[in-house]
Amino acid sequence: MDLPKLAIAALGGTVSMQASHSGEGVIPTVSGESLLASVPELATLARITVETLGLLPSASLDFEVLLSVMSWAKYQVEQGAHGVVITQGTDTLEETSTFLDFLWDCDQPLVLTGAMRSAKQAGADGPANLLDACRVALAASSRQRGVQVVMNGQIHQAHCVRKTESLALQAFSSPVFGIAGLVVENAVRYFHHPSERKCLPWPQHTTQKVALLEASLGADTLLLENILHLGYDGLVIAGFGAGHVSQKWAEVIEHIAEKIPVIIATRTGSGSTAQSTYGFIGSEMDLVRKGASMAGFLCPRKARVLLWLLLGCQRQHELSRYLNRSA
Ligand code: ASP
After folding, report:
1. Atom from ligand 1 closest to the CA of residue 171
2. Mean pLDDT over residues 253-272, rounded?
3. Atom 7 of ligand 1 has which residue's CA nearest to it?
4. Do 227 and 161 belong to one domain?
């Protein structure tokens, strides 16, 4: 039987980590080829090409690296891959998946996975996650869904998924919207049909800077006041509750929003910002009047990714169109 073609790339992260000597901390050293060898069953599912594109902890990935990963993934599809799987660190999966999802305009699935336990740790979850991710990438039902994150038997949509546990095996959730599907007894099961997607063009610029600041009780305005002076091109605020800041912050945000796009998201970890509920100074209604945009369901980190990409293709005027998609 002619098996489908599948492309896998390793970028690093815990899934690729082991310690050189006992007592030392784990670091990324395990290649894509070795990851593949840990799941012999994969050879019965697909004709696999594997590459090691990087061996980084995911905190050290950046947008430039992701653009080269995206080029590599698109090339694999042009060469006939039915799907693409990327293994990486879980710490920034919620951002990398969103970044790639906004640019992935192929019908073929692009699936991200990782592990919470390192390669040699008892009960390592990397091989099972990789196998599940490959099953998802090969499933016909995964087409036209953009980028998915597969961890611990669950399938998450890129724009919903968040890392909500620091060390637990069940580290990911998709607040409000829930998981997109499950891998059950080797079968890929989705709960809904694919929804409409809005992709962005490839960024022409990559030097734009977007700051992310979190509102906190009694915080001074020193950093905020210096945002323009420091040359930032966009600002995201992780606001209190439904997207609120203090009176002091609201005044400074008004000045900033005259010059660069400002998005207010919620720091709560779940739910949407408000639009028309509160009217006090620093509330969402006040901040919108002052020129800021509300992030809706997009978390602060994903909102920052979106703004960076929009600035990169000079579409910042279309911000509300992208913030107003369902999640
Ligand atoms: N703890 C992380 C992981 O799960 C480390 C990283 O993100 O690289 O992979």
Report:
1. 4
2. 98
3. 89
4. no
Give the pTM: 0.97
Distance between CA atoms of residues 36 and 16, nearest Å? 11
Q: Mention every residue, 6+ apart, whose C-beta is less than 8 A from residue 307.
A: 210, 234, 236, 261, 263, 316, 319
Of 1, 2, 15, 9, the residue nearest 134 (C-alpha): 9
Residue 227 has pLDDT above 90, yes or no: yes
Ligand 1 centroid – CA 312 distance (Å): 27
What mean pLDDT do residues 251-260 have?
A: 98
Give me the percent of the chain exceeding a pLDDT of 90.
96
Going from the Cα of 94 to the center of ligand 1, the distance in angstroms, rounded, reads 12
Structural domains of the chain, count: 2
Q: Which of 155, 190, 225 is the last residue of a domain?
A: 190
Q: For residue 17, which atom of ligand 1 is closest to its CA?
A: 9
Distance 105 CA to ligand 1 centre (A): 27
> Does 199 reside within a domain?
no
Atom of ligand 1 nearest to the CA of 28: 8
CA 233 to CA 247: how far, in whole Å? Answer: 23
Active site residue 14: yes
Helix (H) or strand (E) holding 181, with range, is: strand 181-184
Mean pLDDT along residues 82-86: 98
